[in-house]
Batch of 3 targets.
Target 1
Amino acid sequence: MRIDILTVVPELLESPLGHSIVKRARDKGLVEIQVHNIREWGLGRYRQVDDYSFGGDAGMVMMVEPVFNLISKLKSEREYDEVIYTSPDGEILSQGIANELSIKNNLIILCGHYKGIDHRIREHLITREISVGDYVLSGGEIPAAIITDAVVRLIPGALGDETSALSDSFQDGLLAPPVYTRPAEFNGWKVPDVLLSGDPKKISQWQDEQALERTRRLRPNLLDI
C-alpha cells in the first residue's frame, strides 16, 4: 500500500508516522507513506498557498491551483483508489471504513488548513471526505494521522499477532471485553476466575457476554445499528 499525505505543515506528521506500529509497517515495506509539502507547489516568489475568500468571510482559504498541480503530478505516476479530504463535515471514521481502506492499493489524503480549501477541489478532485468527529481542529494533519494509523494496523503483518485486530473494539460492532494480565491478584483486586480456568469455551463465552454488556452500558447506540 502507498499513502500520500498532502499538507502545509508536514512537521505535524513526523511523530505519529515515525513510531510504533506505523513505523514498523514502513520498515517492513508493508506500506509506503509519503508526506508532501503543498507549499513547494505554491505560487509566485513566496510560494503562496492561501488567499482571502470571495464574499468577505473571515479566514484564509487554501487555493485550488497548488493542490490541483500536486494531485495531478501524483496521478500521472500511479492510479489512486481514493483521494480523501479530512473534513469536519465528512462521513465519520469507523472501523468499517478503516477495514475498507486497508485493502486499497494507493490513497491520497489531503489535509485541510486555515478556513478550509477552495470548494472546487472538493467538487472535482476529492472522492471521499472523512471526519474524525463532530468538532473542529486547527488542521487536517491529526485526522490524517488517525486515518493512517487505523488503516495501516490492519495490513497483514503490521501487528505482531495478526489475530489481535480481530478482537478490537468495533471490529464486530461491539466494544472489546475487559483484559487482564499478571499478577492474578493485586491489592485485593482479582482477575475473574474464568480467565484462569484454562477452558477456551468458557473464556470465549465470558468474553462475548462482557462485550455485549459493556456495549449495552457504555455505547448502546451501537446496538441500534
Note: The CA atoms of residues 216 and 224 lie 10 Å apart.
Target 2
Amino acid sequence: MTGIREIKIGDFFSIDQEHFNLIGGPCSIENEDMAMEVAEKVKEICRGLGINYVFKGSFDKANRSSLRAGRAVGMEKGLEILGKVRNTLQIPVTTDVHEAWQCEPVGQVVDILQIPAYLCRQTDLLLAAAKTGKTVSVKKGQFMAPHNMDNVIEKIVSTGNEKCILMERGSSFGYNKLVVDITGLPVMREFGYPVFIDATHSVQEPGGKGTYTKGNRKYAEAIMYAALAAGVDGVFAEIHPDPDHASSDVGSQLKLSDVKGILEKAVMFDRVAKGKKVYV
C-alpha cells in the first residue's frame, strides 16, 4: 500500500493509514436540531467502532439543478450551527466553500474546507482555502482523470499548506450517469495524500429529474466497500434522519437508522485491506 502523508485534523486526531476515517452528515444544514441529532448519533456509533469522525454539513447548496432548489440556512447561521456541533460534541467539522472570499470566515470555524467537485480546478478558490492553514478536501471533478489531480495538489501546497485530502465521487458517463473507477483510487493515492470515497454522491444521477438530481442509495454500500477493499483512507457519506423528505439529495443520502449496520460491515473491509485481524 502506498504511503501517505499524515494529516492532523485540529487537536482531534490525524488521518493516517492505520485508522478508519469518516466524514459524514446531512447534505444541507436544514436546522440546528437535525444537525445536532445526526452529529451526536454518528459520533456515538463511530466511538463504538473506533472510527475517526468529522461532521459535515453544507450551509449553502450553490450547485443546484434548478433556481427553485433550496439553498440551506446560509453562511452566518450555518457557521453558528457548525461551531455549536464542534464545541458541544468536541468533534471536528467541515463544510464546502464556493467562492474565495468565503474561505477566511469559514476557516475560522471549521477544521476542513471542502472544495466541491465542479470547482476543483478553480485556482483562486483552492489558493484561498489553502491559505487559511486548515486541511483542504477536494472532490475530484466528474470531468477529471484521477492522474490529473496532481495539479490540484500543486496549487494547494504552493501556499506552504500540505494538508490535502482528495475525494472520488464518480465520473460522468453519458447523460445523468456517474461511474466510479476503482483503479483511480490507488492512482490518486500515489500522490502521497489521503484519498476518500464519496459513497453517496457517487450514486447520484445529476439532473436526472430535470429540476433536481436523482440518486439510488442502495448502491452506496457497494461503492463504499469496494473502495475500502482497494485501500482508501476514509469514507465520505451524507446522512439524514429522513432522507426521503430532505431538502436536497433525497435519493442518495443514507438513512441515519441504517448507518450503524453499514459502518460495522465497512470496518471489516477496512481491516482486511489494512491486513488486520477481523473480529466476527
Note: The radius of gyration is 17 Å.
Target 3
Amino acid sequence: MLGMPKDKYCIYNGHLISIYEPSIAFNNRAFRYGDALFETIRLCNNKLMFLKDHLNRLKIGMTVLRMNLPAEFNSENIYEFIIQLLKHNTHAPNARIRLTVFRNEGGYYSPETNDISFLIESEEMTHTYELNQKGYWIDLFGDLKKPVNKLSNIKTANALLYVMAGIAKQSMKLDECFILNETGAVCESISSNVFVVKNGTLYTPPLTEGCVAGIMRKQIMHLAHENKILVFESPLSNYTILNGDEVFLCNSVNGVKWVGQFREKFYTNKMAQFFHDKLMQLTV
C-alpha cells in the first residue's frame, strides 16, 4: 500500500507482531518510570556487528537493575529473532536494530516483580559506516551534569539528560555537545564516546568518569592495541581537548565521526580516518 512504512513488524517476547498491534500495557514500567534498558545494534553489509558485546552489556545492566534473566534470553535466540525480523521487514543489507528490555508492569516505584519483557525493532539504513566529510562543530552542554554511579555505564531508558543536551545542541546550531560529569570533566557526547588524539596517542575517559561503556569505544581500543597505538584512559578537561590534535566520537550505529571545531580550536582527522578504515574492514 502506498505510504506504508517498510518496518511493519517487531518482535515482542519472541513473537513476531505488527507494529500496529497494541501489545504494551498502559502501565508499562518503561513508560512510567524509565525502568528499562536498551541496546542499538548495527547491521552492516548483512552482518550483525558486535552482537555478543551488546548482549553482554545488556546482561550486566540487567544485573545492576536486579532484573531476572530468563534462560531463553540468550545470544542464539536473540540472533534468530533479529534475523527473523529483518527478513519480514526486508531490512538489508544495512539496518539499525533496537533491543529494549523492561521490567514487567506492577507496583509503583517498588516493583511487584523483577521478571522482564523484551521488544526488538528494526529500521532500514541506506549505508554502512560513513566518515563525515565535514568535521563536527561541537561545544559543551553545561546545564546538567551527569552523575557518576553504577547506573552511569549502562544504557537505561532514563535519557532526559541527553534529550536536554539534544535540545541545547539544536538551539546552538551545533552538530554535537559534550556531556560533563559531576566534577565538570567531559565524559562523553550526547550519543557517543569521546577520544582525543595527541602526538599519535589516544586519550579517552575511563568508565569511572561516568561515560557509557560503549561497544564502539571497546572496538576502537582493541583496534588501537592491535595496531600498536597507545591508549590512555584519563579524565578529559577542556584543556586536554583544546590541546589535542584530533577529537573524534564513536558509537555502534554511526561508527567514527571526527570533530572539526571546539571553541576556537580546529582539528584534523587523520586518526579518525584510520579507525574508520579499520572498522570498515570488519564489515566485510
Note: Residues 9-124 form a domain with the D-amino Acid Aminotransferase; Chain A, domain 1 fold (CATH 3.30.470.10).
